[in-house]
């Protein structure tokens, strides 16, 4: 008998965890001498009350959807991929190479090319940790973190050397050519009479992320591969019994994960910066962990959690602009969300299970 | 390379290996008791900030050290509550702690000092200063041994000597005391400890607590001895490297000393690209040198240097079976 | 002795785990210097009751009296202080510690180890002499045989001055001879005035060795009687609540052509230890080939290599065609494609994904079958429909395909696995421990299904550590010991004694008591020598 109804597990626990994280964040804001109510008002106004705010919120949400999906696909195979950050950096490299060295006639073709480049490079960066985990049992958490550091060094090397245009000062590639520029929400939805999303970076890759959510859902819950990934994640010995290759499953799940993380770069690098810069990930790879945990590893949950974090990220930027609260507040909130929805899950779950049990006994 | 240059490199090996060694021993206590700790990094970072901040405000590095240990212990307690009391996922808890430390240190640093997330520089009694061992000056003229004693062994801060003394002490605690026997047992088979009438929860919290103290010392060393103040993200992956060193050391104290020395050595030569160029005759990219410890970590984890068997109950919360 | 207080008296013990009432108002009295049996089916609440007595769980209601004094037992420490020792079914030993380290763990004298170990060594020697409990104090647990590991558990209890010893299913992992030795030890302990509680589901042990017996059913104590005044039939009826057949009805086998032929099969495990040491046998259509043996003698590895979970060397052929033992086509998928179905020994970790629903489990291992897919996607509706039908046919309760596998009882979980494997209509069925942890009602059903498949002309390989099960189902019995087949016997002409000796790796030597020969053999195995075969 399940101890509590499915909806409580899927909806109630994340919401309670979120409230707990919110309360603690409020205390943090109080502790640094700011007014939490003012802060939240600023965040909501900046992120949700204007279309430009939404343009930023959804721009960030696009990143977090990709990285959140990346973490959750790996989670289904019981792999903890903390390497989203490095995989996204490599994805950025893939996007830059595709945009700089292939003469695309139109953005609609360019986005296909850059997506493939991003996914391939991101997947490649996940391949070595995946292989080492599958074949040699090397702890994937530590290897993927190491690959984040190595990716940063690699990107640094390329951007101050090979890929930097002659004479340029900052470590970045040249601007991508005009035909690769992606239409922003402003281009798509604003008209002369109703200016919308003015100056906001949200662009067409948001829809790419929505498509990714749908495809991941189909993959995990409707395909044989998804069945095998989940079976392997639940029980490795069971998978062996069923003739599901552990090595293959780990590697495929991690390749998909790395590819998704890499595709985040289409949004930031091609969609916004229109060139590859050093700090292109802005920590989105790590936020993917919180998004996946909060979204219960389900693409729909990831979508909602990504929008929530998009709001927090944009709101945090507003705070940093108008108050003395630094942007690191978002890192704290992210940590609290991971803590409550991930590590302290039982703290919320145990009392709830008792409550539902008591309710059921009363009914009986 | 002349003798003095070698001594210089080895000297900086010791300085750079010290925080790794402390963190590695911290992880050893925790993992030997069956609690994986990805959060070494965050604990060091928090300790680095609070030790520097308190040392700056009070002018006493010893109070700073205590503050650093307290901060690290607080995060340890959080890890214990999540992974022991509430039987949560130890990896996720560790990751959360790392982010919490990364965010909170900058947040508080900005609130207290408004210097862009760093503490003001420490001077005088706000830092651990190097100690000259007895007769170091007078023996310096003895060939070979004199310079080794004067340049390499003498002249470090007290925390370096503490770290090195922790190695035999850890060995003695683990293998010669009742507490050590129980600690190792709880990491191998907690049910055996439980049915023998000893508290699994108590032992594991004790181990996590010791881990907190050692990470606290490691973090304080970073900010008050190795450097003169806190800067954002100054732990720079040392917590993860210490974990790799721990695996390399097969969870044994003396091996931990050797493996952290190896990583310290790599970090030391990464600081001297000139030496490498002189020795091998090729200019090595500075980014490659920076990435070298991380690459070595991956190679070690890949098991190209021997297979390691972790404590059998590691990473799994203890749930009484029904 | 009317004036003596009972060693243990439980009054009105109740304990619930969530919605499950594991113990209901249980009262029991055990007199000192006796062996008291507690018998009941899996899940009857025996282990829960003993765990309460050992301070592992806290009772919701009820009182415990030790030697007439009301005693609170909030934790194991208190149980040990009250003189209670427990030998769990799954030993609670630290595998890479030595015997003496395990014995002193939690009972050390002072903070330093060296004096504690010296003291323990001395008293281990004494105990060994007193009770036939010989074990090398400096041997590592992982190097000891199961029988010796069990002795370490008993030594642990005695070192802590236990007067009351609880043993939970102590003979499940022992050869008959090892079990005999254990009961001699228990007899010695009783003669020294110790009180022993023996939890078992084996009627024979109760009848032979206990003074009194209590029967548990569904969390309740249904009777406590003097062993001399009861019969196996009466106890079985008390356990199940109705009359049960203790024998399986089956027609004589009508073997056909050879289906499975195994020649010189060798299997080496991950640690490089040879587990199956060159065995050969044939199984024909329409017969059940039973492999008896104590757990850990290579039977599991044999099943796993046949089921495609391990690699091996030698030759195997199915219906005359070779079967790959290594490489791409040696995995479970390939085996299934060849018509080999596999009911694995461990349904929790292998046969089922407990977090999957019943319907997802009904295609587990066969999920790549094109039947279940349309295009790239799986056809969930069809799978659910088929699952419903299977669950009906195998009487799985409740017959709800969307329920998670972990929500079913052991017997119903096993039926889900059997339904999946038998309904595939395989040429060869591998069955490991088909009734482990399964209630008696389901056991009958499962046995009937296996026999039905045999009667349809299929070949069946049965591995079980339950000698009774092997004897009642098999048409031919092979005994495995130390990775080799000791010989084949006809179930009609052999007896438990002969099989038991073979399980210990020996044939009879008339001038030596059987247990003595077993001892020597086990010692030889422990010290890495090749066991002698008589």
How would you describe the overall organization of this protein?
The complex is a heterotrimer of chains A (364), B (322) and C (534). With 364 residues, chain A is mostly helical. Chain A has one domain (20-25, 53-175, 201-363): Orthogonal Bundle (ABC transporter involved in vitamin B12 uptake, BtuC). Helix content of chain A is 75%, strand content 0%. Chain A has helices at 6-31, 36-48, 51-76, 84-101, 107-136, 140-160, 185-189, 205-222, 224-234, 236-241, 246-273, 284-294, 299-322, 328-343, 345-363. The longest helix of chain A is centred in the middle third of the chain and has 30 residues, at 107-136. By secondary structure, chain B is mainly α. Chain B has a domain at 3-127 and 143-236. Chain B is 70% helix and 0% strand. Chain B is built from 14 helices and no strands. The radius of gyration of chain B is 20 Å and the shape is globular. The model of chain B has no long low-confidence stretch (mean pLDDT 92). Chain C folds into 4 domains: 8-240, Rossmann fold (3-Layer(aba) Sandwich), CATH 3.40.50; 255-339 and 426-503, P-loop containing nucleotide triphosphate hydrolases (Rossmann fold, 3-Layer(aba) Sandwich); 351-424, no CATH class; 509-534, no CATH class. Chain C has 18 helices and 22 strands. In chain C, the strands form 5 sheets. A 6-stranded mixed β-sheet of chain C has the order 6-7-8-3-9-10, with helices on both faces. Chain C has a 6-stranded mixed β-sheet with strand order 16-19-20-13-21-22, with helices on both faces. Chain C has a 4-stranded antiparallel β-sheet with strand order 2-1-4-5, with helices on one face. In chain C, a hairpin with a 2-residue loop joins strand 1 (8-17) and strand 2 (20-30). In chain C, helix 6 packs across helix 18 and helix 14 (410-422) packs parallel to helix 15 (440-455). Residues 508-518 and 524-534 of chain C have low confidence and may be disordered. Classes of the chains: A mainly alpha (364), B mainly alpha (322), C alpha/beta (534). Chains in contact: A-B, A-C, B-C. The B-C interface holds B 175-182, 184-185, 188-189, 191-199, 312, 320, 322 and C 17, 48, 54, 56-57, 75-77, 79-80, 86, 88, 90, 92-97, 101-102, 104-108, 110-114, 116, 156. Chain C: It is a peripheral membrane protein. Chain C: InterPro entries: AAA+_ATPase, ABC_carbohydrate_import_ATPase, ABC_transporter-like_ATP-bd, ABC_transporter-like_CS, P-loop_NTPase. Chain C: Belongs to the ABC transporter superfamily. Chain C: GO terms for molecular function: ATP binding; ATP hydrolysis activity. Chain C: Keywords: ATP-binding, Cell membrane, Membrane, Nucleotide-binding, Repeat, Sugar transport, Translocase, Transport. Chain B: Pfam families: BPD_transp_2 (PF02653).
